[in-house]
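Why run this: before we spend reagent on co-expression, it is cheaper to look at a predicted model of the complex and decide which construct boundaries make sense. The entries below are exactly what would go into the expression plan.
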Amino acid sequence: MNSALEFDHVTFRYPGAARPVLENFCLTIEPGARMAILGQNGAGKTTLLHLALGWLKPQAGSIRLAGKPLSAYRRQELGQQIGLVPQSEHSAFEYSLLEFVLLGRAPYLPPLAMPTEQDVAMARRAIQQVGLSSLETRSILNISGGERQLVLMARALAQQPGLLLLDEPTSHLDLGNKVRLMQLLRECSAQGVTVVFTTHEPEFAAAMATHLVLMQKGQILNAGYLDEVFNGDNLTQLYQAPVTVVELEGRKVALW
Amino acid sequence: MGASLFLGRYPTPGWISLERLNSDAMAQSLVWNLRAPRIVVAILLGASLACAGAVFQTIFGNPLIEPGFLGVSQGAAFGAAFSILFLVNSAWAVQASAALFALLGLGLSYLLARRVRYGGWLLRLVLAGIAVSALFSSAVGVLKYIADPLRELPEITFWLLGGLSSISWPRALSILPAVLLGLFVCYRMRWRMNLLALSDETAFSLGAAPGRERILLLVAAVLPTAAVISVAGMVGWVGLIIPHMARRLFGADGRYALPAAMLIGAIFTVLCDDLGRTLFTGEIPLGIVTSLLGALTFLILMMRPVNVKGV
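The model came back. Tokens follow.
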């Protein structure tokens, strides 16, 4: 069986930058996996997601989605296959939640078409999944940071991708919403969606992920099943600060 | 808008009656040859400027932008003046030259903004746009200086004032293709436009080609703008204020906001022109009326709560 996503000796450098962000980077992501990417600020996590999306193109090496190079897909196909939940998103205008989430249906519509009733129904369901149905007609400028993050998640759900990329999805969420997001991502993964997310919260990674990648300066420090990689030594090395891992009621917790 | 045909200062200030129109050849000619084309151009002008404003504001994610800020209007004015002075003074040539320089103004603003080393992208864009506009407007000044004061200067000055007093049918018809084509493309892309307001990588993740599609939409918006500027000169405020009104009344979604902006822009401009030509014996330039009425309506609307729509 093909891997869901595969980085094959990928090197990427931003134009004008002295050093590449990723160099000779290899990573294989199994279908249905929930992979957490941990790393210091500036380790290349977001760049990794943008490469996986096909938005950034590597100068060397190749990235394959279900065995086929990303560059061989049409844009619209990529939009149907890969969803992105960015860290945050600025909007200058007062879109309603529903109008905003409806944009997730764009990859299924020809460029000049209008969304159908069915698309609207799917957007509604996505909003319901993240628990914001009561705010459907509220302006996206008039909700909290956490709610906005859930709206971005709902847009990606409406997109129905096979691979979901999330960039620090919990950075603005309170505890209740973190739990809700975790359940949602588990449901997605149970339906066969591959989930890849970056985070600065080892606990969220430990509770959520099946696989873990530790990134340092564009290189993989360690990667593998969560149980193998999530330990005090590795996290200490990653963050260059003393971290111990203890197990509490069957869950791993990082103490620092 | 139809009623505007009957509104004017002939034979007396106010409305012209149907009987009078049936019996008076002078009145018929006036309504058909002067008022009708003028109203048609007012409609096209209002719809084009409001449409361009809505597109620019959405794509650049900045509610304070209008074509005038990004070198488009000044570019078009320069193109028109340049054509009158050095090329053929035919409607088509003036229009083509206006469109060319309007696009050049936009392109230049964009390229400069990428090189400016100060502030965020939007600030850079507006700064570059202001600089390019100033450049074109000084170039227009030079053209005025070297223009023949009897033949060419009055014609160039006319663009800078903005007005519809010299509109005839041939002029009105000459801008029709460019305006209709541009508005049609924008109208068809009205939902897609929402996507192009998102960040590049998000728009890409939703299956769009952000760079290419934005340029297509911008060109589609600039084309009618340059065409109307080439016959009616520079009319301010419509492009800035009308899209705000449309969003206030119909929500931010381009599906409703864009057609609403076109329609409100058309009605608003016809209304302003009606007022401009009937209030006093002399005509008030259109730009003055649009600024006055636009700013007032704008303030009133901004003080009301927003209307956010479901879908």
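The beta strands of chain B are 7-8, 14-15. Chain B has a mean pLDDT of 86. Bring this page to Monday's planning discussion.
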